[in-house]
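My current task is to audit a protein record that another person submitted. I need someone to confirm that the token line plausibly describes how this chain folds. Take the sequence as given and treat only the tokens as open to question. This is what I was given:
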Amino acid sequence: MAGEYGEETRTAADRRLAWVNRQLVAVVVASVAVVAVATTLQLSFGAYPVSPLEAWRALADPAVLFSAAAWRAFLLGERVPDYGTATLVVWTIRLPRVLVAVLVGANLAVSGAVLQAITRNELASPFVLGVSSGAGLAVLLTVVVFTGLLPLLPLFAAVGGGVAFLLVYAIAWQGGTNPVRLVLAGVIVSSVFGSVQTGLFLLIEDIGLVQSVVAWTTGSLVGTDWAQVRMLLPWSVVAVGASLLGARELNVLTLGEETAASLGLSVERARFLLSGLAVLAASTSVAAAGIVGFVGLVVPHIVRRSVGTDHKRLLVGCAFAGPALLVAADAGARLALSPAQIPVGIVTGLLGGPYFLYLMRKHGDFGGFR
């Protein structure tokens, strides 16, 4: 009896994990390895040098890991307890930057995968469709004009990204949309919003603030701390988690509207809800790290080539590969010209621009979903 029960339990577990294939496991393992190496570099190098062994020893310090006061300081913003210099540098300066990169990378990659499924367009991403520009304009308006609303920054960023996405859809709509019109409409909206952002610089009198804003619009993780982790974490959990729950609907949407409707899916409702999650994920990333381009384009495309078109595998793969790309890119941005630091958005742009060109050259139909 016990043997039969055990066999049934194993069979049920096998069915639940049937969607996990070797390619997905390889993507996850490779991504974790990249994050581990890049994290070691980030924790070790800087104005206060520590060896990789010392960095990981500080990270595994039980006095911090099991301290309620320390976690209240990190997650609630209370005073950080007194620790040694190496521990403080690792936990309060370098680790938050890695965590922000992980969250931003996961958000942008998952957002790009969702937008590509909704629009049935391999070239769709928060950056290409103007979502990042809309969120960036909303953030800049909040920072420069409505400074009293800074605690609501992620919410305003989401509204700005949502407005931009709706504008793109409205411009591209001619009894329906196609990949070319969506991309061109995204370029139009991004250009207009980018011009308004540049105009806002004229309202800033503080030169230091201007430099910070310019770095932010390029996409930068310089100076990020636990405040950005606290801002990103809850929205990221909601957006990425809910997107994973919507994997089946994304699979059906990629079959086309008529087929999706014939299978019983409320197409417009599913598209609206999933678009909202994609905009939320991208916008909160913009609020924390600025406009980091091409992550939402490159990562889903690479992961799809590895794990296939099933969106449960694709989204899980993106949730690991996105952090790997951004943590590695940020390590390069921080260390390439040390002690000077360049914005991580420049590195992702240097990687993503040629990849975008490769996609255009490879696909003669310019972005139709496959």
The CA atoms of residues 185 and 205 lie 33 Å apart.
